# Entry
Amino acid sequence: MSVSAIERQLMGYRLTTAKILYHMPDHPGLLQTFVWQDLDMAPGFPVLRRFLDFWTREIEGRLHSVTVASTALVRPAELRFAAGQFNLH
# Structure
């Protein structure tokens, strides 16, 4: 049975974005950027690791670097008190 995105977020998965720099297969001196985004579990990032393992096995472009950012989409509401009140007519 497939788990929905909201259920995964409730289990602790977060929106994860990875900026992947890799060497062009035909021109190894040139770097290309690929942006990957999915729900993943920090700090181990198993979904990203599976993708990078696939990349290493199946794609000719050799990895140069991977930069990862992660944030929770489902979280408690953030409340702040207003410093003033403005009325518009």
